[in-house]
C-alpha cells in the first residue's frame, strides 16, 4: 500500500516527497556507482515523486549508457534519488531509503531487498556475493 514519505539530503537543501510501498522490494546493486555510495532505492513512478526544494542545488551525473540520471546535492554530496529512464517498468525514480524521514530502525530492517548484478549487466540475477551490499 502506498504511503507518502518525506525525505532530504543530509544538509536538508534538497527535499522531496514520495509515495512508496515499502512492503515491496527495494534494491541493492553491485554496479560501480551503487557500490561506492551504498545507494539503497525504493521505486516510485514519476507521478508519485515530488521534488519540494533544491532543484538548483542538484548535480547530475551520468555514466556507462548515460541512460540513468544520478542526482547529488552539491552542498553535502548525498544522492537522495536518481531517475532510471530505460527500465522494464519505463521511467522510474529510485528514492534513497536512507534519506527518508521518520522510519525506525525496526521498520528499515523489515524492508525487503532484491540484490541485482549491475556490475555484469545481469539485472535478473543476484550477484554471487551480496552480503556486503
Core attributes:
5-stranded antiparallel β-sheet; mainly beta; single chain; Metal Binding Protein, Guanine Nucleotide Exchange Factor, Chain A; 8% helix; 2 helices; 133 residues
Could you characterize the architecture of this molecule?
With 133 residues, the protein is mainly beta. The protein has a single domain, classed as Metal Binding Protein, Guanine Nucleotide Exchange Factor, Chain A. It is built from two helices and ten strands; from the N terminus they run βββαββββββαβ. The strands form three sheets. A five-stranded antiparallel sheet has the order 4-9-8-7-6, with no helix packed on it. A three-stranded antiparallel sheet has the order 1-2-5, with no helix packed on it. A two-stranded parallel sheet has the order 3-10. β6 (58-61) and β7 (69-73) form a beta hairpin. The model has no long low-confidence stretch (mean pLDDT 93).
Amino acid at each position: 500500500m502506498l504511503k507518502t514519505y518525506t525525505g532530504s539530503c543530509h544538509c536538508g537543501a534538497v527535499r522531496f516527497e514520495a509515495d512508496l510501498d515499502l512492503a515491496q522490494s527495494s534494491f541493492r546493486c553491485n554496479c560501480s556507482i551503487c557500490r561506492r555510495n551504498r545507494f539503497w532505492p525504493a521505486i516510485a513512478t514519476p507521478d508519485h515523486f515530488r521534488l519540494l526544494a533544491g532543484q538548483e542545488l542538484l548535480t547530475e551525473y551520468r555514466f556507462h549508457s548515460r541512460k540513468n540520471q544520478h542526482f547529488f546535492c552539491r552542498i553535502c554530496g548525498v544522492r537522495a534519488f536518481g531517475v532510471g529512464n530505460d527500465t522494464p517498468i519505463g521511467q522510474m525514480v529510485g528514492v534513497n531509503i536512507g534519506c527518508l524521514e521518520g522510519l525506525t530502525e525496526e521498520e528499515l530492517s523489515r524492508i525487503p531487498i532484491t540484490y541485482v548484478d549491475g556490475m555484469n549487466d545481469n539485472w535478473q540475477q543476484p550477484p554471487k556475493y551480496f552480503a556486503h551490499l
